[in-house]
Amino acid sequence: MESWDLLTDQTALAELSSRGVNRGDRFVVTEALGIHESGPRILAIGEALLSALGRSRRDLLMQNPKVFRHPTQNPQSSELLRRCLMTWTPVEVDVIQALADGSPVKFRLKVEPLYSDRHWYEYWLGSFQRIL
């Protein structure tokens, strides 16, 4: 199986495939660790999400996903997301992301852990559904 951007873990890639995720979808895969520090880094990002945000892969890979959070994001949503990440709990939450020009766009974000080759949760999969 090939790598996706910086994600080369074969177990995680197989799990993405088994969940029906493909490279063209609105998704992001991040490291699972780093919640306390500067945050997890983006390892893979779907084409549809790049297109929806008007951003480039080069601008987002290895960045914290907070880089595209809009300033009007509800703090309660951000806190719920953080708490769930800290306890390895899947979560679905509405978020406001920033387009490349700074304007807001709403998504329903579903976040769930992904196993690694070592059979540990080492990654997060975030799937984005546009809310009109």
Could you list some keywords that capture this structure?
132 residues; alpha+beta; Beta-Lactamase; 4 helices; 24% helix; globular
What report would you give on this structure?
The chain has helices at residues 10-18, 47-53, 57-60, 75-86; strands at residues 27-31, 42-45, 91-98, 104-115, 121-130. The protein has four helices and five strands. 24% of the residues lie in helices and 30% in strands. It has 132 residues and is an alpha+beta fold. The protein has a single domain (10-130), classed as Beta-Lactamase (2-Layer Sandwich). The longest helix has 12 residues, at 75-86. Strand 3 (91-98) and strand 4 (104-115) form a beta hairpin. It has a five-stranded antiparallel sheet.
pLDDT averaged residue by residue: 90
Helix content: 10-25%
Counted up, domains total 1
| Rg of Cα set | 14 Å
- Across the major sheet, the strand order is 2-1-5-4-3
From the N-terminal CA to the C-terminal CA, the straight-line distance is 36 Å
Give the second-level CATH assignment, the architecture: 2-Layer Sandwich
Number of helices: 4
In short:
The chain has 132 residues and is an alpha+beta fold. It has helices at 10-18, 47-53, 57-60, 75-86, and strands at 27-31, 42-45, 91-98, 104-115, 121-130.
Secondary structure layout:
Blueprint: H1 10-18, E1 27-31, E2 42-45, H2 47-53, H3 57-60, H4 75-86, E3 91-98, E4 104-115, E5 121-130
Antiparallel strand pairs: 1-2, 1-5, 3-4, 4-5
